[in-house]
């Protein structure tokens, strides 16, 4: 979907202090043999700071950079991948209370690690539907430090980091332009993230821990249809990126930076950079390895990092590429037009 009429007006992030893999090994939390294999550096760990509070702090930064009152927003979308607070309570109401006010409609979405892509798709459609709708706030946040999650053994080649991130999308010209984006799902692979676990009662209600590694291994042993669909998912991901990049009048070689999920070096290289024919030096891996896989925030955190550090300059292009349960595949192409306020 071409989206040159939509811009990024503000970006925000909240990252707690990081714990290195060496510290985690010393505490018996991370396998020592995995340090060299996956080359991960550490994970951002929020302690008991709630995810909605991290979301609020990131959103406040994004709105401040945007320079317009939060009450002028037409929509807020809150993306989450993990438990946010008390059951039966809605985290976006916390941001309405402390930032936007109650007249800005807000919703929470659950699209796994691709939540920000789905939020962008929904926000673009919302803004285009009515002329008076000008700006939308997208936020994501997760704190994985709970008894049902082992952040250091989330998945082979993956450790979980805590973070909050936020984007203001606007129809007014901003410092970055959302050129195009796409999303597609391979539904025959949905069982890969479900494994052999029952749909009822839900996992959280019986205190069963989450283990993507265990679910994936169950699928390997079962030789499931989901495993057979993995190859098609990889091919579809690359073809989707190719179509989206071409929509912008670009080729892979025109991409100056690529943000994939914050996975191990071999995963980022084999699943993303090598198929695109691009060097790892253009990827977000060197940054992502230091903070862990931060749920739906990975791509926004990398975008902010590259812009703030001067590694992404006016006239350059960045590809955001993600995968999530479903299996959902999504991407977006962004062009930097200027320097954000205060940078």
UniProtKB/TrEMBL annotation:
Source organism superkingdom: Bacteria
Ranges for domain Beta-ketoacyl-[acyl-carrier-protein] synthase III C-terminal come to: 246-336
Classification via CDD domains: init_cond_enzymes
Which InterPro entries does the protein's record reference?
Answer: ACP_syn_III_C, ACP_syn_III_N, Thiolase-like
**PANTHER family recorded for this chain?**
3-OXOACYL-[ACYL-CARRIER-PROTEIN] SYNTHASE 3 (PTHR34069), BETA-KETOACYL-[ACYL-CARRIER-PROTEIN] SYNTHASE III (PTHR34069:SF2)
UniProt domain Beta-ketoacyl-[acyl-carrier-protein] synthase III N-terminal: residue ranges:
108-174
Q: Name one Pfam family in it.
A: ACP_syn_III
Q: What is this protein called?
A: 3-oxoacyl-ACP synthase
Which controlled-vocabulary keywords does the entry list? Acyltransferase, Transferase
Keyword Transferase listed: yes
Originating organism:
Paractinoplanes deccanensis
The positions making up the signal sequence are none
């Amino acid at each position: 979907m071409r989206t040159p009429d939509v811009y990024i007006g503000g970006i925000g992030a909240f990252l707690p202090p990081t714990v290195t893999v060496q510290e985690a090994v010393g505490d018996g939390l991370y396998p020592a043999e995995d340090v060299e294999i996956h080359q991960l550096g550490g994970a951002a760990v929020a302690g008991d700071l709630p995810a909605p509070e991290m979301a609020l702090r990131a959103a406040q930064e994004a709105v401040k950079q945007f320079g317009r009152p939060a009450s002028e927003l037409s929509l807020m979308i809150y993306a989450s991948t993990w438990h946010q607070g008390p059951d039966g309570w809605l985290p976006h109401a916390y941001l309405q209370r402390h930032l936007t006010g109650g007249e800005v409609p807000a919703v929470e979405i659950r699209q796994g690690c691709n939540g920000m892509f789905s939020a962008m798709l929904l926000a673009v459609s919302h803004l285009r539907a009515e002329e008076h709708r000008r700006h939308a706030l997208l936020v994501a946040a997760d704190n994985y430090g709970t008894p049902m999650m082992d952040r250091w053994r989330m998945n082979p080649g993956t450790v979980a980091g805590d973070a909050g991130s936020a984007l203001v999308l606007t129809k007014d010209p901003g410092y970055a332009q959302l050129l195009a984006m796409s999303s597609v799902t391979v539904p025959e692979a949905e069982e890969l993230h479900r494994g052999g676990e029952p749909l009822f009662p839900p996992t959280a209600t019986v205190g069963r821990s989450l283990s993507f590694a265990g679910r994936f291994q169950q699928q390997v042993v079962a030789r499931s249809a989901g495993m057979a669909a993995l190859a098609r998912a990889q091919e579809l991901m690359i073809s989707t990126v190719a179509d989206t990049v071409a929509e912008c009048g670009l080729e892979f070689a025109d991409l100056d930076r690529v943000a994939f999920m914050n996975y191990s070096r071999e995963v980022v290289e084999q699943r993303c950079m090598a198929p695109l024919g691009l060097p790892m030096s253009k990827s977000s891996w060197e940054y992502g390895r230091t903070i862990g896989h931060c749920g739906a925030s990975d791509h926004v955190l990398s975008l902010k990092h590259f812009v703030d550090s001067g590694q992404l300059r006016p006239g350059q292009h960045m590809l955001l590429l993600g995968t999530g349960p479903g299996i959902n595949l999504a991407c977006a192409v962004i062009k930097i037009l200027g320097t954000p306020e205060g940078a």
